[in-house]
Design a protein that fits this description.
Layout (H helix, E strand, L loop, with lengths): L5 H12 L5 H5 L2 H6 L19 H23 L1 H7 L1 H14 L14 H7 L8 H20 L11 H5 L11 E3 L4 E5 L3 H9 L15 E8 L2 E7 L1 H11 L4 H10 L5 H17 L3 E4 L2
Antiparallel strand pairs: 1-5, 2-3, 3-4
Length: about 290
């Protein structure tokens, strides 16, 4: 076998050192063999050994550095979760995750897409509320990162309160509102927004107690490149979720009213306050045609 082209060697090397089960498994993987059918006894044609390390051991250094960097990136994406668990436990979860869900993208923006799912899938049964809180916290932190890195309304004109005031009352029932692209609606089994804030600003060596479980609803958005977090009432979440999926305002209000304990008059007054606040927070991009 002659010397393969550099781009072939690079693709083979990537397949080997990024394999979740290590270098030796990577050499025998279908991805590596498809690029370069290299036998174990031929390895030193590509990677020379040294006085102290074999070719496999030298490649393992790169593999270790690659996985260590991925674990470090996960820690940067989930700082509060890492602080809650402690470095050793978090890194153990992170290593298990990249073995179960290896990175398949050229960008790290998708590295943690399934991390909360992995925590849920591997949660021990009969361990109280603790695992569920960790999953909620992971979903919140990943959503914060996605909102921060994703598209927003910076440089564009959002829907303003005066825009809504200018719409004839007769047109309101059929109105469809487009949410800003940075808006995310979340549900959780714990008051994870409050826990996140308390844990993020806790003194070194101190952490807030585990909160009691109860269903909570949140809205995440971004203004001037700062991620904002807002707790929602169940009916607020229902209304915004209906608008997000294309419902008319009348349909969305009807859905929200089903989950509200308020009478019609009080609910109508609350609606005005909600839309005034939401337009101030710039969560609507436009009125859809």
């Amino acid at each position: 076998m002659g010397t393969p082209p550099l781009n072939v060697v690079q693709r083979w090397f990537q397949s080997v050192v990024t394999h979740p089960q290590g270098v030796e498994a990577g050499m025998e993987s279908g991805a590596a063999l498809e690029v370069l059918p290299l036998r174990r006894d031929e390895l030193e044609r590509m990677v020379t050994s040294s006085a102290r390390l074999s070719a496999v051991e030298r490649m393992a250094i790169y593999a270790h550095a690659y996985h260590a960097r991925l674990i470090e990136c996960l820690g940067e994406s989930f700082p509060v979760l890492k602080r809650t668990l402690g470095d050793e436990v978090f890194n153990g979860f992170a290593f298990g995750y990249i073995q179960s869900y290896p990175s398949r993208s050229y960008t790290l923006n998708h590295l943690a897409d399934r991390f909360a799912d992995y925590l849920s899938e591997t949660s021990p049964s009969g361990d109280g509320d603790w695992p569920a809180l960790l999953v909620d916290l992971a979903r919140l932190e990943w959503s914060i990162e996605q909102v921060f890195d994703g598209p927003g309304l910076e440089g564009k004109r959002p829907l303003k309160p005066e825009d809504l005031d200018a719409i004839p009352e007769s047109a309101w029932p059929g109105l469809r509102l487009e949410l800003a692209p940075c808006v995310r609606l979340l549900t959780a089994r714990f008051p994870v927004n409050d826990y996140y804030t308390a844990a993020r600003y806790a003194a070194p060596g101190e952490m807030p107690p585990i909160p009691a479980a109860h269903d909570t609803y949140m809205l995440l958005t971004r203004r001037e490149y700062i991620v904002r977090r807002h707790d929602l009432l169940p009916e607020q979440h229902a209304l915004l979720d209906a608008l997000r999926t294309g419902s008319t305002l009348a349909e969305a209000v009807e859905r929200a009213a089903e989950s509200s304990a308020l009478d019609d008059a009080a609910f109508g007054a609350q609606l005005q306050d909600w839309f005034a606040a939401w337009t101030r927070h710039e969560i609507f991009a436009s009125v859809l045609p």
